[in-house]
Amino acid sequence: MLKENLQNSIIKELKLIKRLSTKIPAGLEDFRPKENVRSLIELLQYLSGCGTGMIQFWYSNETEPRPFLMKQREAAPKLTLDNASAIFDEQIALVDTIFARITEEDLENKQVQYPWGATDTLGVAITETSIKWLTGYKMQLFLYLKLATDEAFTTPDLWRKTED
To answer: Does residue 113 sit in helix, strand or coil?
Structure first.
């Protein structure tokens, strides 16, 4: 039951992000509310891997998270407005693939390490990374869109509207 809830939560966040990504008008990819914060496209690029990166690491043979995650980060600039929907579809499919390997017992008992050194059970760690990161940065994307466009985004656009 926990497995299905976590999987569905991540997929829903990815679908919301995918939809929001289609609302970025061409030419606004580089919008940023001020210097030294991510642009719209940089935010999308980060979102394209933050929901799956840690879980992939925890099921890899790698021992250090930072080098593993840096390899993923190097692939992120390949995301553009033209291919964002396809990349988020790939992420959704990847979530299904990843969760096919996870058991309820893993979620409750498997100890994993965060990049900052602390450890936790896999189920808690997925919530503390994938779900929180997707949700938090999705909110940032939503707010950027409200600032950068004339579209009237509302609460459903942030929390439940995955399709037009």
So the answer is: strand
